[in-house]
Amino acid sequence: MNTITHIIGSWSVGVAITLIVVAMILAFIRLVVGPSLPDRIVALDLITYLAVAFMGVFAVLSGHSAFLDVAIVVALLGFLATVAFARYVERSHARTSISEDRDD
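RESULT FIELD:
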């Protein structure tokens, strides 16, 4: 690999890891401080996908493609968790609407 390409590649990986870690810290703050349950779930979802991004960057850095397999599994689990939460919110909203209609 060319020396300049190697320097630019290692610099860009370092910048990517730094930005991912900063975003993870900010998402964790939202997870702790979040005023509502949906805010916390969105923050947790963001942390999941930032972890997937970190695994992808780490796979590039280390040269091991096994990290990409793990990242795909984590992304799939994060997607399924988001769908499950959306169904939970939809059902709880429907129950709230029904109980409000009965009160009227």
